[in-house]
Amino acid sequence: MTRRLLQVENLRVHFPVGGGLFSGPRMLKAVDDVSFSLGPAETLGVVGESGCGKSSLGRAVLQLIPPTAGRVIWQGEDLCRLDADAMNVKRSELQLVFQDPLASLNPRMSVGAILREPLYSFEPGIARSEAEDRAASMMRRVGLRPEMMNRYPNEFSGGQCQRISIARAMISRPRLVVCDEPVSALDVSIQAQIIALLRELQAEYEVSYIFISHDLSVVRHLCHRIMVLYLGKLMEIGPKREIFDTPRHPYTQSLLSAVPIPDPRQARQREQKLIEGDLPSPLNPPSGCVFRTRCPHATPLCLKATPALESTGSEAHQVACHYWQDITRDTHTEKPTGE
Amino acid sequence: MGFLTQRRDRQLAAMQAAGRTVGRSLWQDATRRFLSNKVAVGSVIVLLLISVMAVFAPLLSPHTMEDFYWEYILVPPTLENGHWFGTDSNGRDMFVRTFYGARVSLTIGVMTTAVALVIGVTWGSVAGFFGGKIDNFMMRIVDVLYALPLLFFIIILVTVFGRNIYLVFIGIGAVEWLTMSRIVRGQTLSVKQKEYVEAARAIGLSNLVIVRRHVVPNIVGPVIVFVTLLIPTTILVESYLSFLGLGVQEPMTSWGTLISQGAANIDTGPWLLLIPGTFLAITLFCFNFIGDGLRDALDPEGR
Fold first, then answer.
1. Which one of A96, A154, A168 has the shortest CB-CB distance to B303?
2. d(Cα A128, Cα A120) in Å, to the nearest integer?
């Protein structure tokens, strides 16, 4: 765990919600006690249902929303303690790409102006000709013709807008890019192109990604490690292969069994572990283990005690469940009889 | 519409064939749509004509607005004696007075709207962008000022400072920026949710730069439309203030003053009411048509 690029420790993001004349605001725990680390040129997938705090986590790491507690250690320096000016200097290394391709580009600015803006901000005094050259080469790099520099975002397709968005994030040569569902608004064929582009850029610039998505099949293509969130809490984190092959947490198992399989014969054979019920209100999360209200294995212990994150066989694979060992044993004994 | 799109397609094809990349910004798009709106373009031309007349007619006419022609009292409009719009009950030339009134009315319309625009956009965008306590505080001030009746406010101003045309500017401007700031605040609230504002934060831009470069340009559409509606409102407010005797002072005149005098002489000289009334109505119509045209042209759905 030495020489990690990014180390997040016990990060909490709580939002005050409501609060009338006579009652104080209630706290929405968007991210609650999440720790992880990220190495250079590594991709960490963050998955979970909508409203589980994925986006809040990504923005809190970039200090775009102030974390309530915890530390975000970037190359040995706690970002939460930096003042605004010092943080703005760091921002050239920390960028993000958004979900909605069109909404992430200012409709009143030409593509060239959008791409030059980070350069002017991070390198004040840069010559206009140099900024233009770099914007043009970045456009070429993401697969757009530099002649389109003077056009406006409304003239581009969703996929092209996302390329512009990626170019804007990459032009300052960041070390970490938070990708907040960058492909979920795109067609499947375009998704594959964008993912391929992100991969190429990672190889070329040694950039790390925090890749937020609710689509496990997309995550599978791009990520080295995967983190599963539920109601702002870390459920399971581990290398991609282990998460997909031997998921330990019942929530991860049900998420994986919900991924569609293209072959109907295989799909019919698969054991479905769909979870029932709706996501509880994050304003009033269940006591103990937050997943217990929908967990098929829940016992009175889960109601009382919050499970701690435990290492499974390998150090890197950690799970927060009281019964992960029993569940694993059950699935292992079940499997031969089921087939 | 069909032939217009056809023509545009042909233009696009021609430009692409010429090897140029076609960069159509939202502004160019809006301009093209506005120019294809005949009523709006016609209104712009009529307004320009009235403005030109307002500037030059009093200079070129042999009469001045203060000259009394005792031999020509209450003469109806005629081409024979040089008083094309007739004369009023004091024997003053109505042609000069009407366009002199246009000067005052249009100046008040444009100036007070400019004041309302600057204060309203600054106030509203700051309140909307920073939100929270700042927003609450700033908008409560707006609410309090809203509760102040315009007429009451101007009567106080007039009794304290005496009758003065600048008081009318201040009085109307002080009230009209309130609505502007509410519109701007609402638009800002929706724009600041947009992801490009967050992207601007992620590249370390300061709040003021974000407001100036990313927020204000994106709320400009509704603001422009509101401006074209605000100008006629202020002209109307000025005319009823003048009608009540709180506006401009004799011998200076405005459309409102002329209309009030015309209304007093309606049985002896109906043209005294009809001529300035017609000009006022035409001007108000023009601004409203331009406002409609701009609203359609700037509507992103129409793209």
1. A154
2. 9
pLDDT in tens, A289-298: 999 888 888 8
Higher pLDDT, B82 or A107: A107
Out of A104, A107, A150, the one facing B23 most closely (by C-beta) is: A150
CATH match for B37-59+85-302 among 1.20.140.10, 1.10.10.10, 1.10.3720.10, 3.90.45.10: 1.10.3720.10
Domain that holds residue A256: 247-339
Rg (CA), chain B: 24
Specify whether the CB–CB gap between A291 and A230 falls below 8 A. yes
In a domain, A105, yes or no: no
How far is CA B285 from each of CA A23, B288, B290, B292, rounded to the nearest angstrom?
Answer: 52, 5, 9, 10
Mutate to test the interface with B, among A85, A106, A123 (most CBs of B within 10 A): A106
The CA distance from B131 to the nearest CA of chain A, in Å, is: 15
Nearest CA distance, B11 vs chain A (angstrom): 16
In a domain, A193, yes or no: no
Candidates A62, A85, A108, A210, partner chain B, best to mutate (most B CBs within 10 A): A108
Could you give the number of structural domains in chain A?
Answer: 1
Positive or negative: CA dihedral B191, A194, A257, A299: negative
- Predicted model pTM: 0.79
ipTM value, please give it. Answer: 0.85
Cβ-based contacts of B218 with chain A (< 8 Å):
106-108
List, for residues A313-328, the tens digit of each pLDDT value: 777 899 999 888 887 7
CA distance B58 to chain A (A): 43
The answer to whether residue A266 sits within a structural domain is yes
Which of B22, B195, B300 is opposite residue A98, by nearest beta carbon? B195
Spatial CB neighbours of A74, under 8 Å, sequence gap ≥ 6: A5, A6, A90, A93, A94, A176
Chain A, window 209-268: residues with a beta carbon less than 8 angstroms from a chain B beta carbon: none
Q: Does B133 touch chain A (CB under 8 A)?
A: no
3-class SS letters over B105-162: HHHHHHHHHHHHHHHHHHHHHHHHHHCHHHHHHHHHHHHHHHCCCHHHHHHHHHHHHC
